[in-house]
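Researcher: Sequence recovery benchmark, item below. Answer with residues only.
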């Protein structure tokens, strides 16, 4: 029993270490929908100037009604100036078959890590990332969470 517990603990420690990750957190939607007026924002620190990859983490249910998610993201500096902004569309389900993309977490819940950009931060310091949904509905049902992952780049994110 002790050996099994030891192996599990070692596995957890090894998988928790991610040297490229600078920041990662998610915003949970308590009622499982993303209302148009909710714009999750994430404040993060860049330790040194250079290129960093930004990813949008999305967790959705199979009850999500659309094949794709439209969203706009913004990157602000500490003075509130917009450094980057882009409207994007990402398929969460296959448009023909309806099969979900992403990896399943718990049955009908799927995780996606959407590459956004390789951004060149000119200065270390505090930055803010904000995201808003841009679908035609006021609320997008079947959304569990969205989040941001920032990692020091070893290779640039390729945008579609």
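Model:
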């Amino acid at each position: 029993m002790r050996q099994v517990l030891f192996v599990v603990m070692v596995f957890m420690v090894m998988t928790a270490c991610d040297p490229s990750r600078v920041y990662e957190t998610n915003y949970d939607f308590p009622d499982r929908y993303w209302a148009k007026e909710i714009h999750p924002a994430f404040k993060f620190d860049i330790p040194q100037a250079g290129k960093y990859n930004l990813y949008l983490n999305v967790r959705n249910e199979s009850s999500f009604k659309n094949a794709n998610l439209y969203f706009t993201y913004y990157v602000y500096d500490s003075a509130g100036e917009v450094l980057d902004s882009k409207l994007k569309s990402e398929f969460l389900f296959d448009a023909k078959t309806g099969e979900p993309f992403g990896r399943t977490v718990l049955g009908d819940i799927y995780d996606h890590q959407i590459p956004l950009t390789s951004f060149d931060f000119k200065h270390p310091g505090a930055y803010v990332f904000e995201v808003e949904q841009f679908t035609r509905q006021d609320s997008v049902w079947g959304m569990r969470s969205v989040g941001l992952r920032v990692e020091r780049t070893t290779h640039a994110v390729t945008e579609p």
